[in-house]
Design brief:
697 residues; 60s Ribosomal Protein L30, Chain: A; Phosphoribosyl-aminoimidazole Synthetase, Chain A, domain 2; 3 domains; 7-stranded mixed β-sheet; 23 helices; 33% helix; globular; nucleotide-binding; Phosphoribosylformylglycinamidine synthase subunit PurL
């Protein structure tokens, strides 16, 4: 992506001369939107990131959250939208590989992956091609490196037919004493390890900072190529590198241009790098290409001269190619050499930070909710339950190895969130879930972002966890569009409001701009991944009931169908206002579940598709039916369709001999029967429900 005229003027003033070809390559990569956050970082600074348990927040490759004395969890989210639109298999696979390497930078053991995926309708051939290959890319990479894919969320909407949103989150665990100490000094060495540099992924960050158009297939060379075998070697190598290295950095977006600029800035030093010393797969590359190449499966290690032999022995043990190609100096400059000649010499202050850009904003009013007729209830239930957004995603998660590593206590499809056992501390576990709703975010970006946060928070709570931290990913179109930039800013404000009200700091995140196809931006997609702690994984709650259990509903149902799955599936409308958020009610759910945990058979939150979808999913997951009087639910609405399909927050279904809230039914038999008093509204066998709610991929 070309630098703007104003940016070129800033560069020339800072250098006191026109930049060289290699220096231009550095600025094009590191000043790209993807790396510099030049249009967004002034807003992201507003997000709360501090708490007593947050050891390291945003700003480096991976945060650290202390969940037990001396035990840290790290988790990070990454987007790989543009690459996945062009080459879905490698785009998705390299997204997974990149986020794993971020976790390796704190010498953590990667223990889980989650994926938030947004595709076009599966009856569209192109959308289906993207979806199938994205799932295959994630599956192949995760399975081969031995990191389980334990959860996520999948959404289907016409906006993502040509522009998918592909988000990967990695979770890692590390003991306090294993984290690289930092303390980088003058004379310390820069070692690049992993695959040899080539032209795959060349200029990938600049590519991710522009709008996709029909001719974008010529950008195929900007898509990186995955190598899970090398990825696995790096995982194993890093686990043994304790004591050898001072610091580790992923060599990903922006390539060496970003890595060198960030390392120099973080440690307040200069760097001197001999670009020709880099090991290459393509020996025809010049210095500008080496600097901006985004070849995958590479890490940067910072070692003292005394620690070099220790690192070399590990690299040779695992047969990982490496180059000692640079060192830290006092100069305060990024100095680049090629065959002994200086080809770039840039002050760190200039290289490190692209000038901030604030774009015009323009709000809009979404379509109001019109008067809609009440449909036949049985037909409406069938339409909502058969929606791909409500469907059981077994066709996707069965492609993943979610048991590798033997930590997964609650598996995909079993509960509202993934639960992982931390053998480092007995039965202690973590609970993690990601959520997004593009319809909500389109209708009201601020409220939509808050909804994503509280939904992920509630999923973690209902599974038995106490939420501790979050990461987010905001995906929108071009910031040059005033309505899009308004969407972004409003989304940040919604996240800020939710994080502060719930007491859950946002410790990292990712922004992806220019998600458009042709002249059409996507619906804003705000994903939030919440991580919680559970003291005993054996008491985690699955979305199950047993024959004879009472079925209980906690929370109040309002007539909130704006942006709902019901409104779209039955009436083909995207209109109205998303559900309101009562943060005190969400916090009470944490308290209530903790009070009942150990006495319930299972629980499930009420979300997309409303109460009808929650009950149907519990029946399918349990293999047991239920007889439920939905009119016993606490509500202020008089319409049965609103009662069944409202997506009001602050609710969950619980099952057991006793339970929280109001008893609305009893589990048992092989049919799910929904009624209002003595009037039957819907009845379907559990096997029939499973067929109705199966996703065909």
């Amino acid at each position: 992506m070309a630098l703007s005229r104003e940016e070129l003027e800033v560069i020339e003033r800072g250098l006191g001369r026109p930049p060289s070809e290699v220096e231009l390559a550095l600025f094009r990569s590191h000043w790209s939107e993807h790396c510099s956050y030049k249009s967004t970082r002034m807003w992201l600074r507003r997000l709360p990131s501090r708490a007593p348990w947050v050891v390291r927040g945003p700003g480096t490759d991976a945060p650290l959250v202390e969940i037990a004395e001396g035990l840290f969890v790290t988790f990070k989210i990454e987007s790989h939208n543009h690459p996945s639109a062009i080459d879905p298999y490698n785009g998705a696979a390299t997204g997974v590989g990149g986020i794993i390497r971020d976790i390796l930078t704190v010498e953590a053991r990667p223990v889980a992956l989650l994926v938030n995926l947004h595709f076009g309708p599966l009856d569209h051939p192109h959308a289906r091609w993207i979806a199938s290959n994205v799932v295959r890319g994630i599956s192949d990479y995760g399975n081969r490196v031995g990191v389980p894919v334990v959860g996520g969320e999948t959404w289907f909407d016409e906006d993502f037919t040509y522009t998918p949103i592909v988000l990967a989150t990695c979770v890692g665990v590390v003991e306090k004493g294993k984290v690289p100490p930092g303390g980088v000094e003058t004379g310390d060495l820069i070692v690049v390890a992993g695959l040899g540099a080539d032209k795959s992924g060349l200029g990938g960050s600049a590519f991710a900072s522009k709008t996709l158009r029909e001719e974008s297939e010529e950008d195929l060379g900007a898509v990186q190529v995955a190598d899970p075998l090398m990825g696995k070697k790096l995982i194993d190598l890093v686990q043994e590198a304790v004591g050898c290295v001072k610091f580790i950095k992923d060599l990903g977006g922006g390539g060496l241009a970003t890595a060198l600029a960030e390392l120099a800035e973080w440690f307040g030093l200069g760097v001197e790098a001999e670009l020709d010393k880099i090991h290459m797969s393509d020996r025809e590359m010049g210095p500008a290409e080496v600097l901006s190449s985004e070849t995958q499966e590479r890490l940067v290690f910072v070692v003292s001269p005394q620690g070099l032999d220790c690192l070399k022995s590990l690299l040779e043990k695992y047969e990982v190619p490496y180059s000692v190609m640079g060192r830290f100096v006092k100069s305060g400059r990024v100095r680049l050499l090629w065959r002994g000649e200086v080809v770039g010499d840039v002050p760190v202050w200039l290289a490190a930070k692209a000038p901030e850009m604030v774009w015009p904003r323009e709000s809009y009013e979404p379509p109001p909710l019109p008067e809609i007729p009440e449909p036949p209830i049985d037909k409406a239930v069938e339409l909502v339950l058969s929606s791909p957004n409500v469907a059981v995603k077994e066709a996707i998660y069965r492609r993943f190895d979610f048991d590798v590593g033997v930590r997964t206590a609650v598996k995909p499809g079993e509960g509202d969130a993934a639960v992982l056992k931390l053998y480092e501390r007995g039965n202690l576990g973590i609970v993690v879930k990601g959520d997004a709703n593009p319809r909500y975010a389109y209708l009201d970006p601020r409220l939509g972002a808050a909804n994503a946060f509280v939904k992920a928070y509630r999923n973690v709570a209902v599974a038995g966890g106490v939420p501790k931290a979050a990461v987010d990913s905001i995906n929108v179109g071009s910031p040059a569009r005033p309505a899009v930039y308004w969407q972004f800013v409003e989304a940040v404000e919604g996240l800020k409001e939710a994080a502060e009200a719930l007491g859950v700091p946002i410790v990292g995140g990712k922004v992806s701009l220019y998600n458009e196809y042709g002249d059409r931006p996507i619906k804003p997609t705000v994903a939030v991944v919440v991580l919680g702690v559970i003291d005993d994984v054996s008491t985690a709650l699955r979305a199950l009931w047993r024959d004879g259990d009472g079925v209980y509903l906690w929370g109040f149902t309002r007539g909130e169908v704006g942006g709902s799955e019901y409104l779209y599936r039955v009436h083909r409308l995207v209109a109205g206002r998303p559900p309101s958020v009562d943060y005190a009610a969400e916090r009470r759910i944490v308290e209530e579940v903790q009070r009942w945990r150990g006495r319930l058979t299972g629980a499930k939150d009420v979300g997309v598709g409303g109460l009808a979808a929650a009950l149907a999913k519990m029946a399918v997951a349990s293999g047991v039916g239920a007889d439920v009087d939905v009119c016993k639910a606490p509500t202020d609405v008089g319409r049965l369709d609103y009662l069944l399909f409202s997506e009001s927050n602050g609710r969950f279904v619980a099952a057991g001999e006793e339970g929280p809230g109001v008893k609305i039914g009893v589990a048992g038999g092989d049919r799910l029967v929904l009624r209002c008093g003595s009037t039957q509204l819907f009845s379907r066998s559990v096997d029939g429900l499973k067929e109705l709610m199966s996703l065909g991929l």
